[in-house]
């Protein structure tokens, strides 16, 4: 029997970016807030020290900062008629764990989605006609517009001190920025990061081909910055240990560097770490959450009652908690009914490696940051005419190489043996004069047969069913991957590479090779409770004192990294709670 | 007090997380901080095999030297310490799959569903190295793998790679794929883990190692970085001899 703790105004499940943002906003409102975090407390000087964080084996290969699969994992299959098997060791993505969540070990690529991404179904239908979309594609509008979200993108960027070059200031296109971006109300808080040789050369070649390259928006800061909470960050030192690693230099925007030192000092905030929420409790009507139940490290169960429940775990764990708590109707792909688990997506990344004459080119690939790089946006979203191409969606193309860490980043030209003297020579001759993994960061739209549900066979350490992922690429994503990869390869060729290795994403979806950790959907937002789990304020349609934050709200994925949008949505939701909900608790939208 | 270990922990443990030091804490009031609270890595100590038997160690060093053969400029996998690296890894969390999901049922699946093996790397290496020596003895006049000529070793390894040479009781092709990965990993990992001895791999490619500040170098395009590599524990020259 769970022991009952004293009631709080708010319980927050998971203290990553969205949990930290929401905790800060609601404690400012005077509410008494507790955050319950599955992983450990972590902080920069103790957990990411600059004297041993540069350890590729420990952090990149052995996943030190990530959730351990023995705590919980997922099962995976491509098709509904297959048996899903457990992911025993992480591959295609790396779920975060611990205070700070993915904000600790992200690359800090801080993008906004395009205005058309939020009204995707309407936009594509108007431009190309409904019959242009594949029959089983289930994309939909978000129920919110870019303009509504803009102040909250701005809020997050100023929290982080994001470094970048504006491309569209209040409708005026700016030189050097992304001319395709939605209008922003003010410039980035800090100027763009400096770029290495490879990034610069790529941008020059892209410009010569007629594109408009711009620096990737970066949460690794170009200069010292004091954020609106009074927290100070230092300039990034381009150490090349960013993604998978925590930053001990206070240069990467994270909850640790931008929120937690202020939040933890508030008398109305507490965090309980190493404690896993196992369900959201509801009253007899099932329409009202009464709090959560969690398990501590000794295995004891506790009940934390609260008036307001904020679900801010990693996207798929949000969906899992909804299913285990029996909140919302589970999605059934055969009958095409229900919503929880529906419109699950990931990313469709492709890449191109370029090999150059080592007597003329020296890229020093180890000098980099997580969000360094130059990009073009000509082939993202609907910035180009898809009519003749027979697919929808796209992505940014970028020379965004983040590191020269040698276990991972010792590329050899295709055709080189995997071992032996030729391999050794090729590694030696190409390390400094190759560019690896040029990024094609493409969208993954939603489909009727790509979804999440509870696995019938495999259980976690607490005996709960694992989440089952049923996911595969569809022709649309494969066509896009081939098209975008060809475009990228032209740029690398124009840079002067003597060998260009194209690596377009191929099916079937593979759980063993890393793409991104951008898994989205499953608890999507929208205008209609028949096709969404939450309303436009991320408030559960079924339980009005439950808000579900994070990328689980994305109806489909766009061709950008998600964190900017995830955080902006958290601010948007917080503003609705502060401005509307608390005055009159209940549904903010009447269906 | 800003951290309370409350009475939550008083009852008997029903399970233990993989991090032994993890206890549920309530944190409030100020950032918890104590001096030297970090968790630095433990350097591998030289010395005898920890996991491998003598025969396994010989075989693994011989394999390492074919995956990464010595050349006049750079030692091979054996002298770079790659087998020592692997030995210590197999003796540790990697070998025993600490933290991984090892619950049954174990059923075969598609390759893109990831390894579903019931045996962990430590057990797989043990089985594969024994099977490899048996296969070599059967084919090469009772010689174990380490005793073969370089040409014969390469023939055997190419057979594993293509799948033409089968090992009894274990997938030889998957074993060799893993061995390539692990040996090359040892070559490039920080020398504190036992491989990349004297940072030979980093010197070979021009990687300057565990540095964390290139602010002065981000603008210096197409110039060779001049400083030699440094490990997490510094450089041999920094440590007085004797």
What does the model show?
The complex is a heterodimer of chains A (591) and B (242). Chain A has 591 residues and is α/β, with parallel strands linked by helices. Chain A folds into 2 domains: 1-79 and 91-164 and 217-347 and 448-461 and 515-591, FAD/NAD(P)-binding domain; 185-215 and 348-442 and 473-507. Chain A has helices at residues 17-28, 44-47, 56-61, 102-105, 120-128, 146-160, 197-208, 255-258, 260-263, 315-324, 421-430, 475-495, 563-581, and strands at 3-4, 8-13, 33-36, 74-77, 85-86, 168-169, 172-173, 214-215, 225-226, 232-233, 269-272, 276-282, 289-295, 301-311, 348-355, 374-376, 395-399, 434-442, 451-459, 465-470, 499-503, 546-548. In chain A, α6 (146-160) packs across α13 and α7 packs across α12 (475-495). Chain A is globular. Chain B is mostly helical and 242 residues long. In chain B, α1 (54-67) packs across α2, α2 (82-91) crosses α6 (172-188) and α5 packs across α6. Chain B is built from 7 helices and 2 strands; from the N terminus they run ββααααααα. Chain B has a two-stranded antiparallel sheet. Classes of the chains: A alpha/beta (591), B mainly alpha (242). Chains A and B meet through α2, α3, β5, β11 and α11 of A and β2, α5, α6 and α7 of B. β11 of chain A pairs antiparallel with β2 of chain B.
């Amino acid at each position: 029997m769970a022991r009952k703790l004293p009631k709080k105004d708010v319980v927050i499940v998971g203290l990553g970016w969205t949990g930290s943002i929401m905790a800060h906003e609601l404690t400012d409102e005077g509410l008494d807030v507790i955050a319950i975090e599955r992983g450990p407390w972590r902080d920069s000087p103790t957990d990411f020290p600059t004297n041993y964080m540069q350890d590729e084996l420990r952090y990149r290969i052995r996943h030190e900062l990530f959730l351990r699969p023995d705590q919980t994992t997922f099962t995976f299959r491509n098709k509904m008629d297959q048996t899903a098997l457990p992911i025993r060791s992480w591959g295609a993505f790396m779920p975060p764990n611990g205070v700070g969540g993915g904000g600790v070990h992200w690359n800090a690529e801080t993008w906004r989605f395009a205005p058309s991404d939020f009204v995707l179904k309407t936009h594509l239908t108007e431009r190309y006609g409904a019959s242009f979309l594949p029959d089983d594609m289930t994309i939909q509008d978000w129920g919110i517009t870019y303009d509504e979200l803009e102040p909250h993108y701005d809020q997050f960027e100023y929290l982080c001190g994001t470094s970048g070059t504006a491309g569209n200031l209040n409708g005026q296109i700016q030189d050097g920025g992304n001319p395709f971006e939605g209008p922003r109300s003010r410039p980035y808080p800090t100027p763009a990061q400096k770029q290495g040789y490879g990034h610069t050369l790529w941008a020059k070649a892209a410009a010569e081909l007629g594109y408009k390259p711009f620096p990737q928006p970066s949460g690794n800061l170009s200069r010292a910055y004091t954020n609106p909470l009074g927290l100070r960050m230092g300039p990034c030192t381009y150490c090349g240990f960013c993604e998978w690693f925590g930053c001990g230099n206070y240069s990467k925007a994270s909850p640790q560097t931008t929120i937690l030192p202020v939040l933890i000092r508030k008398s109305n905030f507490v965090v309980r770490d190493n404690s896993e929420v196992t369900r959201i409790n509801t009253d007899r009507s099932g329409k009202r959450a009464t709090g959560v139940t969690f398990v501590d490290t000794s295995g004891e169960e506790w009940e934390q009652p609260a008036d307001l429940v904020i679900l801010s775990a990693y996207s798929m764990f949000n969906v899992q908690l909804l299913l285990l708590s029996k909140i919302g109707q589970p999605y059934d792909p055969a009958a095409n009914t229900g919503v929880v688990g529906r419109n699950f997506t990931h990313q469709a990344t492709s890449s191109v490696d370029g090999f150059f004459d080592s007597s003329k080119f020296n890229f020093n690939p180890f000098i980099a940051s997580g969000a360094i790089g130059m990009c073009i946006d000509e082939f993202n979203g609907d910035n180009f005419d898809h009519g003749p191409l027979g697919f929808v969606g796209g992505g940014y193309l970028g020379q965004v190489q983040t590191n020269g860490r040698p276990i991972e980043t010792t590329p050899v030209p295709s055709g080189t043996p995997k071992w032996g003297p030729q391999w050794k020579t090729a590694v030696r001759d190409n390390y400094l004069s190759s560019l690896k993994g040029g990024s094609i960061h493409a969208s993954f739209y939603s489909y009727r047969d790509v979804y999440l549900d509870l696995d019938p066979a495999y259980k976690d350490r607490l005996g709960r069913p694992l989440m089952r992922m049923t996911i595969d690429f569809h022709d649309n994503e494969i066509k896009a991957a081939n098209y975008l990869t060809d475009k990228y390869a032209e740029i690398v060729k124009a840079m002067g590479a003597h060998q260009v290795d194209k690596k377009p994403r191929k099916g079937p979806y593979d759980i063993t090779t890393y793409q991104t950790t951008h898994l989205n959907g499953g608890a999507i937002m929208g205008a209609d409770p028949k096709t969404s789990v939450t309303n436009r304020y991320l408030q559960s349609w079924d339980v009005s004192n439950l808000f579900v934050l994070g990328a689980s709200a994305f109806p489909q994925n766009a061709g950008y990294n998600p964190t900017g949008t995830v955080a902006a949505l958290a601010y948007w939701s917080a503003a609705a709670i502060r401005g509307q909900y608390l005055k009159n608790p209940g549904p903010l939208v009447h269906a | 007090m800003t951290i309370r270990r409350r009475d939550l922990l008083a009852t008997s443990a029903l399970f233990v997380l993989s991090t032994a030091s993890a206890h549920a804490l309530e944190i409030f009031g100020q950032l918890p901080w104590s001096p030297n609270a970090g968790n630095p890595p433990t350097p591998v100590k030289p010395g005898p095999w920890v996991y491998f038997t003598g025969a396994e160690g010989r075989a693994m060093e011989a394999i390492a030297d074919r995956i990464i053969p010595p050349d006049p400029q750079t030692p091979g996998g054996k002298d770079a310490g790659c087998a020592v690296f692997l030995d210590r890894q197999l003796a540790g969390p990697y070998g025993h799959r600490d933290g991984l999901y090892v619950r049954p049922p174990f059923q075969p699946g598609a390759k893109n569903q990831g390894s579903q093996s019931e045996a962990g790397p430590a057990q797989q290496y043990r089985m594969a190295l024994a099977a490899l020596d048996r296969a070599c003895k059967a084919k090469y006049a009772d010689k174990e793998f380490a005793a073969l000529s370089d040409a014969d070793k390469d023939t055997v390894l190419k057979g594993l790679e293509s799948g033409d040479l089968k090992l009894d009781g274990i997938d030889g092709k998957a074993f060799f794929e893993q061995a390539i990965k692990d040996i090359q990993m040892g070559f490039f990992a920080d020398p504190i883990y036992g491989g990349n001895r004297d940072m030979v791999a980093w010197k070979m490619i021009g990687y300057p190692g565990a540095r964390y500040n290139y602010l002065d170098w981000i603008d210096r395009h197409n110039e060779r970085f001049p400083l030699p590599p440094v490990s997490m524990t510094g450089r041999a020259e920094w440590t007085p001899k004797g």
